[in-house]
Amino acid sequence: xxxxxxxxxxxxxxxxxxxxxxxxxxxxxxxxxxxxxxxxxxxxxxxxxxxxxxxxxxxxxxxxxxxxxxxxxxxxxxxxxxxxxxxxxxxxxxxxxxxxxxxxxxxxxxxxxxxxxxxxxxxxxxxxxxxxxxxxxxxxxxxxxxxxxxxxxxxxxxxxxxxxxxxxxxxxxxxxxxxxxxxxxxxxxxxxxxxxxxxx
Length: 200
Known about the structure:
Blueprint: E1 5-10, H1 15-22, E2 33-35, E3 41-43, H2 57-62, E4 63-68, H3 84-101, E5 108-110, H4 111-114, H5 127-142, H6 148-157, E6 159-167, E7 173-182, E8 185-195
Parallel strand pairs: 1-4, 1-5, 2-4
Antiparallel strand pairs: 2-3, 6-7, 7-8
C-alpha cells in the first residue's frame, strides 16, 4: 500500500527515553522518525516498512509516523509546546516527505485526528497553522530558482525607450509617441496635442 498520510505524535517522554523504548521488543510500537527538542532527527523505521504508531493497521500501512520529544524542563506541565528548532526540523521533514510522495499538506494529521488520542500531539501544536506553514514551504519550493531580484535585474538590462515627436498643423503643438521595450515585450503609448510654450 502506497504512503498517502503523515501522522504527527508527541512522545510520552524524552528523545533518549523514546530511543530506548522503541529499541525494546517489549514496546510493541514503533514510528518512522523522532524529533528532539533541539531539532535532532532520529529514524527508527525505514519508510518502506510499516511502523505501528497510529492505532490502526490500515492507517499504519499507508502512513509515516513522526514523534516529537514531549518532555522538557522548560515546558509547563500538562502538554507539549514545540520550540523553533523542533518545529523547523518537523516542517522540513514533512515537506521533504510530501514532495517525494507527491502529496500536499491535506495529507498531514495529528494522531488525535486519525485515532482516539485527543492529547496527541495535544493543544500545543496548532495543526491548522502547521499545515499552512508546510503549504507555504511547498509553494516556495515549487517556484523557479531564479529570484525576483535576478529577474528584475535581467529586465532592467533589456529596457529600451523609443521617443518620437510628430508635427501637427500648429507648430506649437506636437504629437508624442513613446515605445517602451522590456525584454521581449513592447508597450506603446501616444500622447496627442502636447503644447509647447515659450518662456517670456
